[in-house]
Design goal:
Helices cover 44% and strands 13% of the residues. It has 686 residues and is of the alpha/beta class. The protein folds into 3 domains: 4-303, Thiamin diphosphate (ThDP)-binding fold, Pyr/PP domains (Rossmann fold, 3-Layer(aba) Sandwich); 347-543, Rossmann fold (3-Layer(aba) Sandwich), CATH 3.40.50; 554-685, Rossmann fold (3-Layer(aba) Sandwich). Helix 1 (7-28) runs antiparallel to helix 10. Bound molecules: thiamine diphosphate. Thiamine diphosphate binds next to helix 2, helix 6 and strand 4.
């Protein structure tokens, strides 16, 4: 921030950046030049003067985080990442080409300096709220300001219009996240043109009412359009003085400025400007119209001063870090373990002890899950999470822990609030909860979960998808998993949800059948290889606790499907997940009475089963047994791959009913008699 006087060099670097953006879109033949061009002064100012970052160490823990919520404007970030030293000019030339580091929308894990995948509008700004919460929690947990950093995000009207940004921003205000900074690129243009046809509220007033600090920087000055980087930096300085509220700085811009005949038009949003227009733009910017991908070495050297700045900031941080480690060995070893992703001592024992203590009384799997979660939370200090206003129903409350919130913000029901609080109250904001928990995982080394009813997983689905796409180990706890939830009726009874979640790549959908499988599901969520997210699907109603799972789940559950009861020469296979496993056990008994040997297979997680070697899969589902019945209180779709052409399904391919849980299950065919009937049918077809 001391280098403001060099504004002329700044202007030239910004002009050069805009030329690179126009060329890259032109070369790719497609892309989003408009806002990438007009956001450039903002992104440049952030990387050059505001963010604490080290291009030589993109993952440095002490860095500030920057998220481009307007993912379509990716080139605005890529070009600054190039100027700062994260990317090469060839990367810029490779924009939108296959396997390049510069895809159409920024992708987490692919490109240095990209903190999360963006593109689905609204999610960047909402996930940023999670990043900001993570920084606060982690620094409180480890009792050090070293883990406090700023979280910056740049968004456009599209993000503001998406509902999830309102959910998350509202919560950010309640949480008084003083480390969160949103810059709103207000160009009053979206794909269909002037935003006054869709967005007429006073956005600043809205953010003010959420409890945010707000400010405006207007590039449309009385003396004409001026990309006033210094005015922006002054606004940043002013905002930083306010530490007890999140910050919203609106910057009024003109899309694609200063492309002659194009600036201000929605046509620049999503297609190349055209060769002639790019030449005109370059002339306007003082660049050589005949040169493509023009980079002035002096300006590049000027921009690369970020490297030195970053190295210095990092050196200073590391000195503090070494000192802290020496003085705080306990926290330091917790920190090291969290960074490595290792499990705490006593993790297995906590679950073993819990299983030991379980009786064979029936228990809803959501209740077993609450027990397992709490057993783990006792030994895993970095585990936190909550629910979308259903904590008691989802059994997601960490008992005895404080709530996460600013000091002194407690209520009658939740009197203890603190930045180290482990119970998060998301409010009825499922989508924001998904995005925020994603941000928590991306922004810290803590572990996190979020709960709601399975029915409302659809509300948070787009965030679940981003977790799967980014390959981050989020835990989505989804209870009340079938029509057996009863009297709340069809609006609350999930039917298609299991199959629809299973259709999502890289998401492990786990539906344990009883208390033992539920404990093992939690164990495997933490012990499994890789970092894929998990959806844990749990019952509202009581289910029998089985001695069979007590004996077999530890080994069987991680394999995704296993034989609960069976031997060589079985006549048919009954398979089920969750609450329907005890149903097929009952059916197997009835069949046994008829002299039919039914194998019983519990299928808690199809994704884990698919990863097993063929020999194992065939040992569970031997090719020669073609009479098969799959039973699940949800749509049949995901079971056809296991039942084969002679098989049958006992599933629910219609909406639920008004009635008690047991009435519904009976009316919709989830009965021993029905399973037996289908088994006999399948045996006939063999
Ligand atoms: C959730 C979602 N819906 C739709 C889109 C498609 N889309 C990409 S950009 C855009 C318009 C965004 O307008 P704005 O944020 O004002 O961006 P600008 O035109 O200023 O670049 C739309 C609809 C998307 N990326 N994400």
């Amino acid at each position: 921030m001391d280098e403001l006087k060099k504004s002329n060099l700044d202007e030239k670097t910004i002009a050069m950046s805009k030329g690179l953006i126009a060329d890259a879109v032109q070369k790719a033949g497609s892309g989003h030049p408009g806002s990438a061009i007009s956001m450039t002064p903002i992104v440049y100012a952030l990387y050059r003067y505001v963010l604490r970052h080290d291009p030589l160490d993109p993952k440095w823990e002490g860095r500030d985080r920057f998220i481009l919520s307007s993912g379509h404007a990716s080139l605005a970030q890529y070009v600054q990442l190039f100027l700062a030293g994260y990317l090469t000019l060839d990367d810029i030339k490779g924009y939108r080409t296959m396997r390049s580091k510069t895809p159409g929308h920024p992708e987490y894990g692919l490109t240095e300096g990209i903190e999360m995948t963006t593109g689905p509008l609204g999610q960047g700004i909402s996930t940023a709220v999670g990043f900001a919460m993570a920084s606060r929690f982690q620094s409180a947990l480890l009792e050090s300001d070293l883990f406090k950093h700023e979280v910056w995000t740049l968004c456009g009207e599209g993000d503001i219009e998406e509902g999830v940004s309102s959910e998350a921003s509202s919560l950010a205000g309640t949480q008084k996240l003083g480390n969160l900074f949103v810059i709103f690129d207000c160009n009053r243009i979206q794909i269909e043109g002037d935003t006054s046809i869709t967005l007429t509220e006073d956005v600043l007033a809205r953010y003010k009412s959420y409890g945010w600090y707000t400010d405006v920087v207007d590039f449309n000055t009385p003396s004409g359009y001026k990309e006033d980087v210094q005015a922006l930096l002054r606004a940043v300085k002013k905002a930083r003085k306010v530490e007890d509220r999140p910050h919203f700085i609106q910057v009024n811009t003109v899309i694609a400025w200063p492309a002659p005949g194009k600036a201000g038009s929605e046509k620049t949003h999503g297609s190349p400007l055209g060769e002639e227009a790019v030449r005109d733009l370059k002339k306007e910017l003082g660049l050589d119209p005949d040169r493509k991908f023009q980079v002035d070495p002096d300006l590049l050297a000027y921009a690369r001063q970020s490297v030195k700045r970053g190295e210095e900031a990092k050196r200073e941080w590391e000195e503090g870090f070494e000192e802290w480690k020496a003085k705080n060995p306990e926290n330091a070893s917790l920190h090291e373990r969290m960074k490595k992703g290792d499990l705490p001592q006593g993790f297995d024992k906590a679950l073993d002890d819990l299983e030991e203590s379980l009786s064979l009384d029936p228990l809803p799997t959501r209740a077993s899950s609450g027990k397992a979660l709490n057993a783990i939370a006792k030994v895993m200090a970095e585990l936190w999470g909550g629910s979308a206003d259903l904590g008691g129903s989802n059994n997601t409350v960490i008992e005895g822990a404080a709530s996460f919130g600013p000091e002194g913000s407690g209520t009658k029901q939740w009197p203890n609030c603190s930045p180290a609080g482990r119970v998060i109250h998301f409010g009825v904001r499922e989508f924001a909860m998904g995005a925020i928990t994603n941000g928590i995982l991306l922004g810290s080394s803590t572990r996190c979960f979020g709960g709601t009813f399975l029915q409302f997983a659809d509300y948070e689905r787009a965030a679940v998808r981003l977790a799967a796409l980014m390959d981050i180990p989020n835990i989505f706890v989804l209870t009340h998993d079938s029509v057996a939830l009863g009297e709340d009726g069809p609006t609350h009874q999930p039917v298609e949800h299991l199959s629809s979640l299973r259709a999502m790549p890289n998401l492990d959908v786990i539906r344990p059948c009883d208390a033992f499988e539920t404990c093992e599901a939690w164990r495997e969520i933490f012990e499994k290889e890789g970092t894929s997210p998990s959806a844990l699907i749990l019952t509202r109603q009581k289910v029998p606790t089985l001695s069979l799972t007590k004996e077999k789940a530890r080994e069987g559950l991680p394999k995704g499907a296993y034989v609960l009861k069976g031997r060589e020469g079985d006549d048919l296979i009954l398979m089920a997940s969750g609450s329907e496993v005890s149903l097929i056990l009952g059916a197997a008994e009835e069949l046994e009475k008829m002299g039919i040997r039914a194998r019983v297979v519990s299928v808690p997680c199809m994704e884990w089963f698919e990863r097993q070697p063929l020999s194992y899969r065939q040992s569970v589902f031997p090719d020669e047994i073609r009479a098969r019945v799959a039973v699940e209180a949800g749509s049949a779709m995901s079971w056809y791959k296991y039942v084969g052409l002679s098989g049958r399904t006992v599933c629910i391919d219609r909406f639920g009913l008004q009635g008690s849980g047991s009435e519904n299950m009976k009316a919709l065919g989830m009965t021993v008699e029905n399973v037996v009937e289908k088994a006999l049918e399948s045996l006939k077809e063999e």
